[in-house]
Amino acid sequence: MGSAGLILEDKVEKILNGGGLEVKELDSAPEQVKPVILRKTVCYIVCAVIINAKNEVLMMQEAKPECYGRWYLPAGRMEKAESIVEAMGREVKEETGLDCQPITLLLVQEQGPQWIRFVFLAEVTGGSIKTAAEADAESLQARWWDRESPLPLRSRDILCLIEAGLKYREKPGFPAALPVEMPCHLICQRLLLTFSGPDGDLWVLLGGSKELHLPVAACPMTCALSWASRRLLKECLPSSYRQLTVSSRGLLGLQHSGRVPGETDGICFNTLLSVEHAGGGPEAGQPPLPESPGFQWHRVERAQLRDGIRERLTSGALLPVHSLYC
């Protein structure tokens, strides 16, 4: 393997381990791609699941008129020029009085790029819990909830989030994953798309008109995030796409930096996928042939990298994405 192959596999390994890479080129995109703008064309929500030593969950009491007096996890919309982690810490502080730090993202929920919620598992690092005497426009008060005492909830959608936090505390289902601060101007997916051969070989799909890289697809604003990868594959493999089984396994990580409002409000989701031939035949042991000159397969040479990718594919140890799009 030459030096170019070594550099490429170093980059693949970086993404596999939760790191980030600059988005330099789009390999699949609608005809017109414009930078997304926070709170205008996209809305990002942060939410924190914080559990104490007694397995009680930190809750806040809503002050908003439409849900006044109801209880919910500390959560809210990101503001301009914030990182995702900063937004989570700010919301927890404003609504509960406590300082915290993230342990990991638990999951990502999306209704297309226009609404994305980042759910964290976090831990308290300081502060004092907000009392009724400190009620303000952010919340009326905060408390620890044992999950058994009656509590009027704003919505039951948080119950599955709490359960995900409890499960992760008991047995982490994937390596701790936190957003990487790297700028991006749109919502996109970087694909670590793999094909496994019967003899132990493993390939990853590459794109690039200038320099080879893991392909990046812009996400359409009116569809689920996964449509970006589907569109890219249909463009790359138009004849064989319907004869393939494509599985989106989950996120290896994500990249965001909103430091320049209106220019870097985008997010790159680094996604692991696998593809295989739906039927048998002599072609089943080789990856499907790309029909676009902008794509090619790279056979992974480094044994440690092959093993690392296979382990994530087999174990399913990936940050989940839940699509609420309908």
Plain-language structure description:
Residues 40-166 form the Nudix hydrolase domain. This is 8-oxo-dGDP phosphatase NUDT18. The chain has 326 residues and is of the alpha+beta class. The protein folds into 2 domains: 3-37 and 178-323, Nucleoside Triphosphate Pyrophosphohydrolase, CATH 3.90.79; 43-170, Alpha-Beta Complex (Nucleoside Triphosphate Pyrophosphohydrolase). It contains 5 helices and 14 strands. The protein is elongated and about 70 Å long. The mean pLDDT is 95.
How do the helices and strands follow one another from N- to C-terminus? Answer: HEEEEHEEEHEEEHEEEHE
Radius of gyration: 21 Å
Measure the end-to-end span: 46 Å
Classify the helix fraction into a percent range.
10-25%
Report the strand count: 14
Report the uncertain regions.
Answer: none
Mean pLDDT: 95
CATH class bucket of the largest domain: Alpha Beta
- Hey, roughly how much beta strand do the residues contain? 25-35%
Please give the domain count: 2
CATH architecture of the largest domain: Alpha-Beta Complex
* Largest beta-sheet characterization: 6 strands, mixed
H/I helix tally: 5
| Outline type | elongated
- Examine the coordinates and then state which fold CATH places here, giving the name of the CATH topology of the largest domain: Nucleoside Triphosphate Pyrophosphohydrolase
Structural class: alpha+beta
Cofactor: Mn(2+); Mg(2+)
EC number: 3.6.1.58
Keywords: Hydrolase, Magnesium, Manganese, Metal-binding
Catalytic activity: 8-oxo-GDP + H2O = 8-oxo-GMP + phosphate + H(+); 8-oxo-dGDP + H2O = 8-oxo-dGMP + phosphate + H(+); 2-oxo-dADP + H2O = 2-oxo-dAMP + phosphate + H(+); 8-oxo-dADP + H2O = 8-oxo-dAMP + phosphate + H(+)
